[in-house]
């Protein structure tokens, strides 16, 4: 079944399809800690959560898109437990550390292969990543900051509804996290005006600054005056970054890592120190002059992007990130048509680790499947 068929499938057909997949079979074989999940293995819990979604009072009023996002969040929320589960020596307790982090990547990979559109895929992947946060709200030093941060990544409303289904989809006698905590999440998000929308920061720079402060201040409105503008391109090889720049930002000079590698006769598998150093020097020239420019590299990992964003922010530039990801088969075709094509296994490995950018990282964000250029 493909993505369009799965979106229209009944719950029974969806679970039947899932049970034919290796990642689901691994879930069925994965035991859980009885204190949290007396109902049994991961797949047993997942099926209970799927059913609980349909029993939510709010379910009939949700849009078709919202139902799709919640359904596939439920399907994948614990998909990485088989990859992370361990038994503590001595106590015999079963733990699955960082299963949500790894689950985000698994969900993204499966949905990409199914042909899920970029926007929906990222909604689901991020909900998988943060699905456990509401239950631990009161353990945060600044609970309000927590709901504000998450509102820029996911829908707090959908996160709350999923958390309800997740809590109810297990043996309630084994629960140590009361459902009341989830209602507090909803109330705090509503009070902060970010339950059904992202938090309304005063300006783009106020939001950008909030996510970069060690001790964030929601009421701080920094002066919004930029010394320049940087368009940071992000995307897998073959995604069309060069084409996008030619068609959408043709007036901008470009600092391109690929071009610098060619200039220095450095292969992608060689040490990249000299390439990065020359790229930084050229970026600084534009930044010091206040000249708008584009920085073109794969930039598919948040940590990698962060190093360049820190450089641009040090010069008080406005930072726009453009992430491109056409349907995967199209991307592979475009890559093969390049003179310096990247081997397909390398692209697939990069895709598995890919972390598309979010509003936490920049002043402006464009996510595109490449259908508009």
UniProtKB/TrEMBL annotation:
Keyword match Protease: no
UniProt keyword Coiled coil, yes or no: no
Keywords attached to this entry: Nucleotide-binding
InterPro entries: HD/PDEase_dom, HD_domain, P-loop_NTPase, tRNA_CCA-adding_enzyme
Domain spans labelled HD: 42-143
MF annotations from Gene Ontology: nucleotide binding
Cited PANTHER family: MULTIFUNCTIONAL CCA PROTEIN
Name of the protein this chain belongs to: HD domain protein
Upper taxonomic lineage: Bacteria, Pseudomonadati, Planctomycetota, Planctomycetia, Planctomycetales
């Amino acid at each position: 079944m493909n993505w369009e068929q799965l979106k229209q499938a009944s719950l029974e057909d969806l679970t039947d399809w899932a049970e034919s997949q290796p990642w689901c079979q691994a879930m069925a074989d994965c035991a859980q800690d009885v204190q949290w999940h007396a109902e049994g293995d991961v797949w047993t819990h997942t099926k209970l959560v799927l059913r609980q979604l349909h029993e939510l009072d709010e379910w009939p009023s949700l849009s078709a898109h919202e139902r799709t996002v919640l359904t596939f969040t439920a399907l994948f929320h614990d998909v990485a437990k088989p990859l992370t589960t361990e038994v503590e020596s001595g106590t015999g307790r079963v733990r699955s550390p960082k299963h949500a982090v790894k689950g985000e990547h698994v969900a993204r990979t499966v949905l990409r292969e199914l042909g899920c559109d970029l926007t929906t895929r990222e909604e689901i992947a991020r909900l998988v990543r943060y699905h456990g946060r509401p239950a631990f709200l009161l353990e945060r030093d600044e609970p309000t900051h927590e709901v504000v941060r998450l509102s820029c990544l996911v829908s707090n409303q959908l996160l709350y509804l999923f958390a309800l289904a997740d809590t109810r989809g297990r043996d309630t006698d084994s629960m140590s996290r009361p459902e009341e905590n989830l209602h507090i999440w909803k109330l705090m998000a509503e009070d902060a005006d970010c339950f059904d929308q992202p938090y309304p920061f005063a300006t783009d720079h106020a939001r950008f600054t909030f996510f970069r402060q060690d001790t964030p201040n929601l009421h701080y409105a920094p002066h919004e005056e930029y010394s320049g503008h940087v368009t940071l391109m992000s995307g897998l090889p073959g995604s069309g970054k060069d084409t996008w720049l030619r068609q959408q930002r043709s007036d901008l000079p470009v600092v391109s890592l690929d071009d610098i590698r060619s200039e220095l006769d450095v292969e992608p598998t060689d040490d990249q120190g000299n390439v990065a150093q020359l790229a930084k020097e050229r970026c600084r020239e534009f930044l010091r002059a206040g000249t708008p420019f584009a920085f073109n590299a794969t930039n598919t990992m948040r940590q990698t992007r962060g190093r360049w964003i820190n450089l641009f922010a040090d010069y008080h530039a406005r930072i726009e990130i453009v992430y491109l990801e056409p349907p995967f088969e199209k991307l592979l075709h475009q890559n093969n048509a390049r003179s310096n094509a990247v081997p397909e296994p390398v692209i697939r490995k990069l895709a598995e680790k890919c972390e598309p950018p979010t509003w936490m990282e920049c002043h402006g964000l464009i996510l595109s499947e490449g259908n508009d250029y």
